[in-house]
Design goal:
300 residues, two-stranded parallel sheet, alpha/beta, single chain, 9 helices, 7-stranded parallel β-sheet
């Protein structure tokens, strides 16, 4: 079997590091792109590449001769200008470099946050309406990045759209950053208990990304129900079993010894449908109970 050479941006982040590990386990040769030396995962087949992927010259060099580019970087918590500079402009710089270099596949970790999930919206699949321009910065910039990749052409592109990503890690938004904010700010512990908490575990997300990148999920000629379409831009949702804000906020508050405040009000109660990913042979292995146990253990 031919070994795939896969470039992964943000290789030291929560998602990026798990993708690198999954690729290493599959025998891929990984170019792990990081900004600081010594931060890439130390794993078989992984080679650290230090630099700024938003620099066209660096981007061209790191993707030369690669089979796949996987992009995972987005500066959460930054203003819209910074998010656009790094998440949109930087991603497009290295994606364009990959296209120019003849890299046949680009996999971009996007977000289900690109979808409109207003209270009256039901279940959401890949054809769901996207957020309007006045939505939160994160959803808008990710939406625009997806659109730019769709226009790029010249290679097969896959937009992987996870909702909240659970999983242990210092930079984990939902296991570390948000609970810390909830501990400090009572308003962050307020929630409509029946509102949907759409989620996926980082291990399951990394599995899909690595399977696409290594060809375990093969490209197809025309029908996205069976795989990424060759030469096209195919979005795919990944999500775990149904959960509510009561599940997540309740678990965090219980671990921190705090009381949540349950409120009435309009809320989205639909699901992020992952039927397309399941049609590709993917299915989540981490159950909600296990993900919440891991969350609580990390906070205690």
């Amino acid at each position: 079997m031919t070994t795939s050479t896969v470039v992964v941006t943000g290789a030291n982040g929560l998602v990026g590091s798990h993708v690198v590990r999954a690729l290493s386990e599959r025998g891929a040769a990984v170019r792990a792109v990081v900004r600081r030396a010594g931060t890439a995962p130390d794993l078989p087949g992984v080679e650290e590449h230090v630099g700024d992927f938003a620099d066209p010259a660096y981007a061209a060099g790191v993707v030369a001769g690669a089979d796949v580019l996987v992009t995972t970087v987005h500066p959460l918590g930054s203003g819209r200008d910074d998010q656009r500079r790094v998440g949109l402009d930087g991603t497009m710089t290295i994606a364009a470099a990959a296209t120019d270099a003849g890299v046949p596949l680009v996999v971009h970790v996007s977000t289900a946050g690109v979808y409109d999930r207003s209270p009256d919206v039901g279940d959401v699949d890949e054809d769901g309406a996207l957020v309007p321009d006045d939505a939160d910065d994160y959803g808008v910039v990710k939406r625009d990045t997806d659109a730019a990749l769709a226009r790029l052409g010249g290679t097969t592109r896959v937009l992987v759209r996870p909702p909240a990503i659970l999983g242990a890690g210092e930079s984990s938004v939902w296991n570390t950053v948000t609970p810390a904010a909830m501990a400090q700010d009572e308003s962050r512990r307020r929630a409509v208990p029946g509102a949907t908490f759409a989620w996926v575990h980082v291990d399951d997300l990394a599995t899909l990304v690595a399977d696409v990148a290594t060809g375990a999920i093969a490209t197809v000629a025309s029908d996205a129900a069976h795989g990424p379409v060759v030469g096209a831009c195919t979005p795919v949702n990944v999500a775990g079993e149904p959960a509510t804000r009561r599940d997540y906020v309740g678990a965090v508050c219980a671990a921190l010894g705090l009381e949540p405040t349950w409120e009435d009000g309009p809320a989205w109660t639909g699901r992020i449908l992952a039927d397309r990913a399941r049609g590709w042979g993917w299915s989540p292995r981490v159950a909600l109970a296990d993900a919440l146990d891991e969350l609580r253990a990390g906070l205690r």
